[in-house]
């Protein structure tokens, strides 16, 4: 049996280097470093330009800006999965005393709380956190610029609040919690709040001349959860693999899928972009990408993943503006996906399946619409429409002949097996949608009843 190739083809690698090099030149960045992840591991890491006289490699730290927000979102969702909070909880329930206490945790993650985009006072990205020693200094006196829930409005102070929330519940600085709960389990040893050598210097490039000016790299204090982390291409490649597959030591795959689900409405003219829970979403060439871009003075970065392709890409550069890292990272994903389409793993039977799952497997009908229910691993099931059918969903087991939808129209809804007096399966009920073994089965509890005449032939309109 042939094996799936683990390395990229030479022509693919050359295409990646060409895209990286042209991006660095066009973006006039002193240096750029990038990585591609496939099937859970880095398959390409390269740099262009120089840092301290040498081509950057996967171990050089760059500031990653708002990619920090995705790390903070992971910490918040860990608290949710532990039952310590709910996304519908008002912030004040866990972090009292702020002027944004009515904002829900979920709205802060999705940037729908209507809070200001930036902290008041001097530009927070270039000034020390000592200028904003309290949360009140982060929000200002009038933090609400839109009604809550009305629209997506990106808010850096909103993630400062989420970092403070993590600290309040865990009783430890958010970056220490991050290191213990995320970085160490994933083996990300080169991601930190402050730079650790070797690291790049952040530069601004003159708009009309090829000269540089160093940018400040300050500790932003309470605003750090919005964008202060430093990382490397190797570490962010590890994080990209995690965003695709999950890791039960940190967050499982279902929670990662929820993070990638749109939670904020896009702008009316911008339907190719969206936002989930701490993750940006991008639809490009028919491919749905999830991740985040980031910028701080002197640095830009991006990480995009395509779970359907089992691919991810990371790009980092040390320039304030000009380098389109989001497009560059998306191009790297697309290059590999198109040149080397994903080869599926061999089909294998399930290691085990409960008898009650086999009892409900197979064709079902919602009215006349055909569906098929298939058992998956670990007791999960998938209800998929056949041609001429409708909405499908993947469901997780909740016990007692019931499952809960994970995606699509039926996300959160309950599928319950209904049995007759003898204990045999009669029909399925999914959020009041009744599924029977035959279209409009006359013996089952079809809402509205069944026409006594049943199915008729030779019927003529009019």
Plain-language structure description:
The protein is α+β, with helices and mostly antiparallel strands and 462 residues long. It has two domains: 10-339, Beta-lactamase (3-Layer(aba) Sandwich); 355-435, Lipocalin, CATH 2.40.128. 24% of the residues lie in helices and 22% in strands. The protein has ten helices and 19 strands. The strands form four sheets. It has an eight-stranded antiparallel beta sheet with strand order 12-13-14-15-16-17-18-19. A seven-stranded antiparallel beta sheet has the order 2-1-11-10-9-8-7, with helices on both faces. A two-stranded antiparallel sheet has the order 3-6. The longest helix is centred in the first third of the chain and has 18 residues, at 10-27. The radius of gyration is 25 Å and the shape is globular. The mean pLDDT is 94.
Which characteristics define this entry?
8-stranded antiparallel beta sheet; 10 helices; alpha+beta; 7-stranded antiparallel beta sheet; Beta-lactamase; Lipocalin; 2 domains; single chain; 462 residues; 19 strands
């Amino acid at each position: 049996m042939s094996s799936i190739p683990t390395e990229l083809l030479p022509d693919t690698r050359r295409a990646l280097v060409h895209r990286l090099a042209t991006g660095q030149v066009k973006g006039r960045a002193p240096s750029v470093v990038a990585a591609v992840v496939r099937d859970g591991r880095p398959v390409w890491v390269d740099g262009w330009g120089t840092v301290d006289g040498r081509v950057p490699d996967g171990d050089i730290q760059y500031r990653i800006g708002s990619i920090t927000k995705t790390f903070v979102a992971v910490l918040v969702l860990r608290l949710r999965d532990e039952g310590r909070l709910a996304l519908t909880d008002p912030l004040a329930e866990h972090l009292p005393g702020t002027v944004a206490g009515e904002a829900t945790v979920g709205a802060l993650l999705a940037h729908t709380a209507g809070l200001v985009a930036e902290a008041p006072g001097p530009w927070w990205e270039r000034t020390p956190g000592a200028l904003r020693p309290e949360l009140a200094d982060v929000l200002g006196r009038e933090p609400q610029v839109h009604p809550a829930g009305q629209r997506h409005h990106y808010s850096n102070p909103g993630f400062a609040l989420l970092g403070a929330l993590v600290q309040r519940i865990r009783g430890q600085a958010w970056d220490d919690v991050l290191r213990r709960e995320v970085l160490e389990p994933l083996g990300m040893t080169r991601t930190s709040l402050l730079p650790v050598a070797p690291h790049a210097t952040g530069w601004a490039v003159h708009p009309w001349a090829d000269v540089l000016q160093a940018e400040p790299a300050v500790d932003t204090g309470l605003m750090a959860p919005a964008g202060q982390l430093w990382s490397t291409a190797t570490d962010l490649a590890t994080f990209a693999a995690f965003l695709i597959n999950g890791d039960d030591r940190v967050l499982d795959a279902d929670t990662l899928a929820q993070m990638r689900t749109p939670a904020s409405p896009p702008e009316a003219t911008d339907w190719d972009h969206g936002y989930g829970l701490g993750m940006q979403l991008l639809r490009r060439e028919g491919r749905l990408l999830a991740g985040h871009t980031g910028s701080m003075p002197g640095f830009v970065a991006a990480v995009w993943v395509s779970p359907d392709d089992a691919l991810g890409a990371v790009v980092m550069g040390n320039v304030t503006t000009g380098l389109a890292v989001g497009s560059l990272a998306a191009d790297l994903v697309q290059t590999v996906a198109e040149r080397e389409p994903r080869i599926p793993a061999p089909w294998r039977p399930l290691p085990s399946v409960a008898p009650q799952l086999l009892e409900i497997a197979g064709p079902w009908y919602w009215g006349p619409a055909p569906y098929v229910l298939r058992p998956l691993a670990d007791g999960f099931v998938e209800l998929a429409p056949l041609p001429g059918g409708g909405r499908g969903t993947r469901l997780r087991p909740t016990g007692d002949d019931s499952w809960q939808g994970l995606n699509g129209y039926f996300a959160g809804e309950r599928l319950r097996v209904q049995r007759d007096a003898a204990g045999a399966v009669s029909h399925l009920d999914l959020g009041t949608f009744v599924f029977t073994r035959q279209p409009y089965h006359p013996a089952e509890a079809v809402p509205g009843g069944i026409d006594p005449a049943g199915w008729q032939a030779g019927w003529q309109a009019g």
